[in-house]
Amino acid sequence: MFPDSGTALYAHTTAIKVFFETFGPHYFKSGTSHALFQGFRPPIILQAFRDRQPTFLSSESWNKIPFTSACPSAMQALLTDVSTIPFLLKCNDALFENGSSAIQVAEMFQSFIDALERLTEWENHFRLESGFQYYWQCGTDAGELNTCQSLHVPITFLNFTMANCLIHIWAIRVICLAETERIVLFSSHPIQPKPHTSQFRSAAYVQGQINHFSRLILRSMEYFFSDDMKLFGPASTLFPLSVAYQQFTAACYQCDEELKFINSIVNQLIDRGLQSASSLVYGMPGPD
After folding, report:
1. Higher-confidence residue: 172 or 70?
2. Tens digits of per-residue pLDDT, 191-242?
3. Residue 50 · residue 281 · CB < 8 Å
4. How many CA within 13 A on the CB side of residue 113?
5. Closest CA to 231 of 262, 258, 199, 270
6. Three-class secondary structure assignment of the chain
7. How confident is the model at residue 287 (pLDDT cuts 50, 70, 90)?
8. Disulfide: which of 48, 155, 171, 185 matches 240 by Cβ 3.0-4.6 Å?
């Protein structure tokens, strides 16, 4: 269940974190406690992205001990891999707030490039696992997938596991791309990336990538709202949808169509019973 308001949801997530930390990672190795851990771990880690603050769940003990008796699912393994990125977000904020050296800026830039490369490895893993196209465009030539501009031509997926992982990979990719753009545009030190990543110095390239992956997220929505998904499918879209919303509202070009599309999805989420959808997508308040 999702609390109705952003404030209530923040309090709920905070209480879960206290519960986890009170009992420690060994408590969640098996049984009902392990099932609770698997259910509550994703929202805690995703909240860390929203807060741009590190999470205790990124530590080695929390990433390994609860899964010693049962292998993590693909989504749980992905969350383990990206759980340190909120720490990078906090560090990047500190660089701009407190000043930084050229070396610090270069290291921060490379950290986000490394994160993007790991996300690419995840997509390559799914491509190899499926043996063929692991998501595709509905009703038209698959070759048009990356050039189609219509939000109303949906994409579909091989299965829910891949779909859920991919929209979160795309969302986190957008976050990391936005941070590289921030460093390039606003750092007082010039960036000299490695030759194979020189394209990330181009604001046009990075914005194109942000737009591409944000639109893929929106075009995925129909898949998650199919009747057999019940509530779990729509609930899985909340974090990726919020990332896409943030990027389209921050864009320097007109995004009325995209924002209208997102608004329609939020209304559908509320109709499905997710009353906190507005807070989660449009911005959830922290503690007063």
Report:
1. 172
2. 887 878 889 989 899 999 999 999 999 999 999 999 889 899 999 999 999 9
3. no
4. 19
5. 270
6. CCCCCHHHHHHHHHHHHHHHHHHCHHHHCCHHHHHHHHHHHHHHHHHHHHHCCCCHHHCHHHHHHHHCCCCCCHHHHHHHHHCCHHHHHHHHHHHHHHCCCHHHHHHHHHHHHHHHHHHHHHHHHHHHHHCCCCEEECCCCHHHCCCCCCCCCCEEECCHHHHHHHHHHHHHHHHHHHHHHHHHHHCCCCCCCCHHHHHHHCHHHHHHHHHHHHHHHHHCHHHHCCHHHCCHHHHCCHHHHHHHHHHHHHCCCCCHHHHHHHHHHHHHHHHCCCCCHHHHHHCCCCCC
7. very low
8. 171
Token couple for 265: 């999805």
d(CA 202, CA 200): 5
pLDDT exceeds cutoff 90 at 187 = no
Query: How much is the pTM?
Result: 0.92
pLDDT at 127: 84
Taking a C-beta distance cutoff of 8 angstroms, is the pair 224, 163 a contact?
A: yes
Per this entry, what is the length of the chain? Answer: 288
pLDDT confidence band for 39 (50 / 70 / 90): very high
C-alpha 276/C-alpha 43 separation (Å) is 13
| pLDDT winner (highest mean) among 43-47, 123-127, 275-279, 284-288 | 43-47
Structure tokens at 19: 């519960």
| Dihedral sign of CA atoms 63, 64, 70, 71 in order | positive
